[in-house]
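Hi R.,

Here's the chain you asked about this morning:
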Amino acid sequence: MHRIGVTGHRSIPPAAYAQVYEGLCEALRVSGESLEALSSLAVGADQLFAQLALARGARLTAVIPSDDYEKCFEEEEDLARYLMLKSLAGREVRLDHPHSTDEAYYAAGTWIADHCDRLVAVWDGLPARGLGGTGDIVTYARALGRPVTVIWREGVRRD
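And the predicted structure, written out as tokens:
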């Protein structure tokens, strides 16, 4: 089984969305092997990756950073999408953090990097805005020697 993990920005600007969508579709094209997709199901890149992986027939592993993770979803539709994706996951990994903190998010990102064969990063190349951000997880995965595929539209900045 081939395992692809994701890390990425919560906000994907409209100018980058089509390239991100196509890049994720391409990253999920693995011929001849069954596929497991690892995601924390956060808003933005993580949820889009999970949706595309499930549509491709991949097994989804949901990595839940904390006991109160559901509280971090500010919009009702984002929470509903998270709950739907979590219900479709073939496996759930719940980390031992009581609250959704930067440390919990970092732990989820490093867990994904530790357990994947390749990491897909929806990343503008800038440093993380807080511990556990996309830049931190890319740095961690590269230090492990994991292949990292960066998907972004050059010249587009996130909000």
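The mean pLDDT is 95.

Let me know if you need anything else.
M.
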